[in-house]
Amino acid sequence: MNDHQIVIGIFENEFYAIIARRELKEAGIKANILKEGGGVFLPLMSQAEGVQLIVPDTQVEKAMTILKTKFV
Questions:
Q1: pLDDT class for 31, splitting at 50, 70, 90?
Q2: CA 67 to CA 10: how far, in whole Å?
Q3: 9-22: per-residue pLDDT in tens?
């Protein structure tokens, strides 16, 4: 059964999202980065809209706890 993916954070650039994803991966949570907006052709638009970090809906609570502990 596939889990639904939930956005747990929006970052101003991909670098911050990668750091957060690494922390979640170390805790056993499969997180993905979703970039929307201009894509390859308009990277500045992509940055303006933010970079989303998504996790399976079954792991949202654990992921949020980790991010709050590490980044707040």
A1: very high
A2: 12
A3: 999 889 999 999 99
CA dist 71 and 27 (Å) reads 15
Identity at 42, one-letter amino acid code = L
Residue with tokens 């308009």: 42
**CA separation for the pair 28, 35 (Å, rounded):** 22
Strands in 5-11's sheet, in edge-to-edge order, are 5-11, 51-56, 32-35
Helices (H), the chain: 14-26, 43-49, 60-71
Q: How far apart are alpha carbons 5 and 31 in whole angstroms? A: 9
Cα–Cα distance, 37 to 14 (Å, whole number):
13
SS3 11: strand
Cα–Cα distance, 10 to 33 (Å, whole number):
10
Q: What pTM value is reported for the model?
A: 0.77
